[in-house]
Amino acid sequence: MSWKKKLIILKPAIAMLKASLISNISLNIHKESEKLEELYPTVHEWKVIKEIVELLNPFEAATRLLSVVKYPTIGFIYPCICNLREKLEIDFTSLKLMMQNIAEMQYSQLPL
Questions:
Q1: Which residues contact 87 (CB under 8 A, 6 or more apart)?
Q2: Do 15 and 21 touch, CB atoms closer than 8 A?
Q3: Which domain of life does the protein's organism represent (predicted)?
Q4: What confidence tier does 106 reach under pLDDT thresholds 50, 70, 90?
Q5: Domains of the chain, residue spans
Q6: DSSP labels for 37-104?
């Protein structure tokens, strides 16, 4: 068989191989995306995440404020602590709800 005939036979085979590889890749991508979707947070989990972020924001602000000062003194630290305490007392009901949400989420993930 001449090289020309082999080439005529191989060209469609190569095209079919490329198409097969592309479809296998897209199937693998689809399977991987399904696995990733299982790891995505649910709507309930997003709510809990948002509540945690809101709860931690005052701590971030206090940390940022104290890290700017070279030598934080009690005169600087005490107002930060009072501010944190005030924010936490206001958000205590929010914290209670968040803890209930976390407990419910953990309970719902238990195998039956």
A1: 58
A2: no
A3: Eukaryota
A4: confident
A5: 1-39, 41-112
A6: HHHSPPHHHHHHHHHHHHHHHHHHHHHHHHHHSSS--HHHHHHHHHHHHHHHHHTHHHHHHHHHHHHH
Tokens of 53: 């972020």
Q: What is the DSSP letter of 2?
A: -
pLDDT tens, position by position, 49-68:
777 787 788 888 888 888 88
Tokens matching residue 112: 């039956």
Exposure string of 56-87, with b = 16+ CB inside 10 Å and e = fewer, is: eebeeebeeeeeeeeeeeeeeeeebeeeeeeb
Q: What is the pLDDT of residue 17?
A: 63
Q: For the chain, how many residues are written? A: 112
